[in-house]
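Consider today's protein:

***
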Amino acid sequence: MTIKAYASAAPGKPLELLEYDPGDLGPNEVEINVEYCGVCHSDLSMLHNDWQITQYPLVPGHEAAGTIGKVGADVKTLKPGDTVGLGWMSSSCMHCDECMSGDHNLCQSSEASIVGRHGGFANRVRASEEWVVKLPDGFDLKSAGPLFCGGITVFNPILQHRISPTSRVGVVGIGGLGHMALQFLNAWGCHVTAFTSSESKIAEAKEMGAHDTLNSRDDAELEKAANSFDMILVTVNVELNWNLYISLLRPRGVLHFVGAVPDVTAAIFPLIAGQKSIAASPIGSPRNIKRMLEFSHLHNIKPVIETFPMSKVNDAMAHLEAGKARYRIVLENDIN
């Protein structure tokens, strides 16, 4: 049976309905009936071939949520009817040191859901069993998709750096990633500061969990917060005064990047003197995605979403590209 999806034929071309034959389902694969699919800025980057890895026709979509329709012969942990989600990664080798250590997200042979394969802007999407994660009972399916990319991207550093409930953490950029980070960190018990240059977002940032706010581009204001943070989580993709941000860290503090900042230049001596570090990370492992979902369900953490019918996907992409999304876009499947 063919899969119906929205695909772009070349850079700059609109997404149009495409039918394709996915072939036989692999023994370790599952097929998801997509009900909702989040829209991530990475989908936009792939559409424009910004990273020079796009293969056309491209079917974007790596924040899919729905139910299992079919399972391969060797699948053991999922069954038809299970409510699940799929994020950026669609498979990993399951044999390398990273996979065997539980760090599947660092597998050098992993495959992304929309790199060299078709994603979730479709009525169905396929992936390997290990990367399709069941949702907790009663989880809100409509808001689940963005957690599988944006959510785990900001949740993973909390685990990676063993952030404690007494930690003081700053979040730079209150957008699609940052607004979820505020919620996670507040529920984790941290003292949370939102860094934003948008006056309009200050009140919203506090509603979502920030205890304090700082202007991310006001050097004089930032200098007053020197030696204040155990971690600063950077979710933006713009250049800032990184040496100044390093001065805001306490000894052993970490400046952690999850936004695709083009370049980071920093003086080494403040890092040495304070035993500070600069770090970065992709999404998390399937195990940590499961932990994030359980934590989200326990604390009623959800992305703030806007919805579009999947048939209006080009309108949704234009809305995102114009910087108007507040804060994540979710497509509702209306493909017949």
Remarks:
- The radius of gyration is 20 Å.
- The longest strand covers residues 29-39.
- The first helix runs from residue 41 to 47.
- The chain is about 25% helix and 25% strand.
